[in-house]
Amino acid sequence: MKNLVSSGVLGRWQTWAGFGVAAVLLFAVAPAVLSDFRLSLLGKFLCFAIVAVGIGLAWGRGGMLVLGQGVFFGLGGYMMGMHLKIADAQLRGEAVPDFMQIAGVRELPGYWEPFASPAFTLTAILVAPTAIAVALGYGVFKRRVKGAYFAILSQALAAAMAILLVGQTSLGGSNGLNRFRTFFGFTLNDPVNRRMLYFIAAATLLLVVAVARQLMYSRYGELLVAVRDSEERVRFLGYDPANIKVAAYAVAALFASIAGALFTPIVGFIAPSQVGILPSIAFLIGVAIGGRTTLLGPVLGAIGVAWAQTVFSERFPSEWTYAQGLLFIVVVGFFPAGLAGLAGVRSLLNRRRRSDSPASVAEPEPQGTTEEKVGVPT
């Protein structure tokens, strides 16, 4: 019992120490060593990491291969972009955003009007994608759709969403929404405000990781892993696997929506190219490479892949796509637990070496009868 208590205390201290190190790196080291451009680029990568945390929860822990997270990422991004465009138009004293004026639109569409309110926009970013994920999850998981069928369905949803957005001239068509000037009253061209956006993204990532950790190491997290490993056994024990899956899928959608809402002002645009199949697969690649079953693996994988894409695509624009595909094939084929799994294999080998060493061999128990060992009087 004493060993269990001490190990629990040690685990909590390690968790707090890990969050402390991450906070120092994100809030002190990165702003000190990176230029404003590179810091804004890191803020973009942190948005991808927020999406990856949700994928790690749904795919790594729940076994749901989510290939349509670009849908929820795009929903959050477009809702934030709609509010920013309305705010910019109001500052200029105009009734509609600039791209609508070019298209000859003189009146704001009805579904745009509620996004003039900051409170409504933030609420919609949190509620709408989550509600859509819950409705879609119940429709799919209650029918026991899983595996490759669920992956294909989610990917088809992403493709349909991208095609729909391209045809919507009231949402900018294939160009999307761009050229934002303000963010809730703050000028986006100001370097101080750009840093503020980075700090918001960094704080959100830490909060999302904390929420994911709480879910993973709770009773719900144990049920989620049980559903992944043996769904029928969980159903036999009296739990509904569909409800457990829906919760994880909704949380992943919520994280993706928040990431999209932060991505829009940080990068300065949101378009159908961030919603379709390719970005959804790119999110998945980072999670797979980092290690989908771990807590920090998806975060580090998403940031690392996004950073590598930026660096190498600048020098080798045509070769990077092939290198990214090859890296994904190698990791999935030879390291299914991701790069984070290499550390687990190394620690397992170290424990085996220690257990096989002569010093670790336990002394033989004293000879005696069974009654004497358990304390039964003779």
From TrEMBL:
Listed InterPro entries: ABC_transp_permease (IPR001851), ABC_transptr_urea_perm_UrtC (IPR017778), LivM-like (IPR043428)
Compartments reported by the entry: Cell membrane
One CC-aspect GO term: plasma membrane
Molecular function via GO: branched-chain amino acid transmembrane transporter activity
Record Pfam families: BPD_transp_2
Keyword Transmembrane helix applies: yes
Chief location of this protein within or outside the cell: membrane
Name of the protein described by the UniProt record: Urea ABC transporter, permease protein UrtC
Protein origin, superkingdom: Bacteria
Membrane topology according to the record: Multi-pass membrane protein
Keyword set, alphabetical order: Cell membrane, Membrane, Transmembrane, Transmembrane helix
